[in-house]
């Protein structure tokens, strides 16, 4: 879970020693491309574009069971979604609407924060699972589908069971899962 931080540190150590660590540079580059793939999946499920679309985002932290937003893939994905014209409504168990103005200043610019996962999904064209919070597995997906504009999920953490999501009426795409 600390892969991005560790690889950045190794690349810096190599640079300081005058060594070009091309293999690790390539790994970091391929890893960074995954954010764009999540956004592309969201575009596809939203009907081909994100301009004017609402995207629900579950999870903002770097990883579950922490409140650390630094180097969070979910924040990077949120920014790319917004750059594509989407409105992002997010929920994270450790990121409160009340604390957004101070503790997370700068990290959450432009991201709408919701009080719970269901309100984040209200009117959403696509739901993106950005952090693997276990509680997301056990939500009432009939309720989730009923508040969304269309029941579509991009599971960037492969947290949810694809077959169960399909049975609940969702269009589902995970990472590495068609």
What key phrases describe this protein's structure?
globular; six-stranded parallel sheet; 178 residues; 6 helices
Question: How would you describe this structure to a colleague?
Answer:
It contains 6 helices and 6 strands; from the N terminus they run H-H-E-H-E-E-H-E-H-E-H-E. It has helices spanning 3-16, 22-45, 73-83, 117-121, 141-147, 162-167, and strands spanning 54-58, 87-91, 112-113, 126-129, 152-155, 171-174. Strands 3-2-1-4-5-6 form a 6-stranded parallel β-sheet. Strand 5, helix 6 and strand 6 form a beta-alpha-beta unit. The chain is globular, with a radius of gyration of 17 Å. The two termini are 24 Å apart.
Counted by DSSP, the helix tally is 6
> What is Rg?
17 Å
The N- and C-terminal alpha carbons lie at a distance of 24 Å
Order of helix and strand elements from N to C terminus: HHEHEEHEHEHE
Helix content: 25-40%
Strand order of the largest sheet: 3-2-1-4-5-6
Describe what is shown at a glance.
It contains 6 helices and 6 strands. The protein is α/β, with parallel strands linked by helices and 178 residues long. Helix 2 (22-45) crosses helix 3.
What is the topological layout?
Elements: H1 3-16, H2 22-45, E1 54-58, H3 73-83, E2 87-91, E3 112-113, H4 117-121, E4 126-129, H5 141-147, E5 152-155, H6 162-167, E6 171-174
Parallel strand pairs: 1-2, 1-4, 2-3, 4-5, 5-6
Helix pairs in contact: 2-3
């Amino acid at each position: 879970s600390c892969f991005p931080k560790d690889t950045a540190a190794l690349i810096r150590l190599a640079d300081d020693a005058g060594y070009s660590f091309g293999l690790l540079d390539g790994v970091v580059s391929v890893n960074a491309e995954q954010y764009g793939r999540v956004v592309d999946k969201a575009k596809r499920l939203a009907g081909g574009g994100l301009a004017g679309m609402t995207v629900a985002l579950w999870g903002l932290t770097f990883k579950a069971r922490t409140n650390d937003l630094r180097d969070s893939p979910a924040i990077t994905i949120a920014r790319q979604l917004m750059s594509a014209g989407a409105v992002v409504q997010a929920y994270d168990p450790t990121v409160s609407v009340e604390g957004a103005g101070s503790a997370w200043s700068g990290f959450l610019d432009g991201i709408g924060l919701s009080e719970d996962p269901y309100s984040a999904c209200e009117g959403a064209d696509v739901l993106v699972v950005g952090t693997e919070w276990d509680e997301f597995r056990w939500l009432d997906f009939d309720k989730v589908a009923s508040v969304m504009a269309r029941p579509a999920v991009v599971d960037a953490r492969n947290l949810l069971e694809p077959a169960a999501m399909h049975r609940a009426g969702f269009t589902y795409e995970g990472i590495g899962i068609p």
